[in-house]
Amino acid sequence: MLGTSVPKNAKPPMTLTIVLLVLAATPFIYYGIALVSCWRFFRRPLLKSGGSFTPPVSILKPIRGLDPDAYENFASFCRQDYPDYEVVFCVSDREDAALPLIERLTREFPERTIRVLYGSGRDATNDKVAKLSRLVAEAEFEHVVISDSDVRVRPDYLRAVIGPLENPQTGATTCFYVALEDRTLVDGLQSVGMMSDFYPGIVVAWQLDGVKFALGPTIATTRGRLAAFGGYEALENRPADDLLVGRLIAEQGYDVELLRYPVDTVADYGTIRELIHKRLRWIVVMRHMRPWGHFGLAFTFGLPWSLAAVAAHPSAVMAAVYLGLYLAVRIGMTAEVAVWGLKQRGYWRRMVLIPVWDALAFLIWAASFARHSIRWRGADYYIRGGALVPANSIAADD
């Protein structure tokens, strides 16, 4: 009837509401897959770390400056219950702040072979990878373990990560990593993000497609496996080198073994801004490397979809079904990984941060579509053809 106004509280058409409710249920399919995948993964028996396969090993550590508690991190690699290994550092130059700590290591662990290389000797966008290229080239032994500088390990670490390589079909091993201590709210938020979001996704990938990646805090492999795809020289201008190492080894027909054995990392997030920047950098890289998979993440965010469902059909029953199920499943996923799988004590008190992380992760994912560059080590880069290109060089060309 002409002149009749639409009521302000009019509901959307029923068909649209049903479509929205169905779409809002899709994250629960992913959550179900994640729950089953994590149960299957963590129920596997732990690999024994006391086997007889103990080839000599070169531990390779690219260093740039100091991480929190750096000395204890470094020293843990000198306390390995392992017959023959060396620790090789590559620092930027002779003024690197880590050098006094490495010199202290050589004094306090005279029984260990500890060497220092100065500079990568290469002109590369990714300085860490350039250092790894030199480290691999100058490693004394065929078996190598690549580890980040913020990692701290137990004495059985080398046996745990090297042992599976006795199987000639295993091309590399990699590990989960957990925060040694949550010192701030930001550290706790990062930890919850790993346990509730990142690791379930990793295990779903293991379940559906096998392990075709590696995680940076630990990669154990051989120089021959690395050389077969061109070594770190082939990756020195590319982002996500750890992921690529695992992928390129898997493409040779070898297995990449994701171990249940976790290593510790020392959290270094000072502010929520730093955490957002790191997460945004990672997810923008993933958008370039796996564009369809990145878009598909839209159907893994249970919180915004559940809120949309309640908004489309507001009722106590709808809130209980969607938001109640969302909270129950997310807490279950996190407990399955953190409490049962990785044996993290006192983790229940952090569960309150799960919705906070989920809201933040969704906003970062949405923001990634508007980002055309990443910020890394104080400089801006574009990703062109899978390679890092300094933003200032493109600006100069323009």
Structure described in brief:
The protein has 398 residues and is an alpha/beta fold. 47% of the residues lie in helices and 16% in strands.
Would you kindly provide a written description of the structure presented here, covering whatever features stand out?
It contains 14 helices and 11 strands. It has 398 residues and is an alpha/beta fold. It has a domain at 57-182 and 209-269: Spore Coat Polysaccharide Biosynthesis Protein SpsA, Chain A. α3 links the parallel β2 and β3 (113-118).
**Largest sheet features:** 8 strands, mixed
Tell me the fraction of residues in β-strands, as a range. Answer: 15-25%
Global morphology: globular
In DSSP terms (H or I, runs of 4 or more residues), the helix count works out at: 14
CATH fold annotation of the domain at 57-182 and 209-269 = Spore Coat Polysaccharide Biosynthesis Protein SpsA, Chain A
Low-confidence segments: none
* CATH architecture title of the domain at 57-182 and 209-269: Alpha-Beta Complex
Which structural class do you get from the secondary structure elements? alpha/beta
Distance between the termini: 59 Å
Mean pLDDT across every amino acid position: 90
Q: What percent of residues adopt helix (DSSP H or I)?
A: 40-55%
Question: Based on DSSP secondary structure assignment, what is the total number of beta strands?
Answer: 11
Series of H and E elements: HEHEHEHEEHEHEHHEHHHHHEEEH
Q: Cα-atom Rg, whole angstroms? A: 23 Å
* The CATH homology group name of the domain at 57-182 and 209-269: Spore Coat Polysaccharide Biosynthesis Protein SpsA, Chain A
Strand order of the largest sheet: 3-2-1-4-7-6-8-5
CATH class type of the domain at 57-182 and 209-269: Alpha Beta
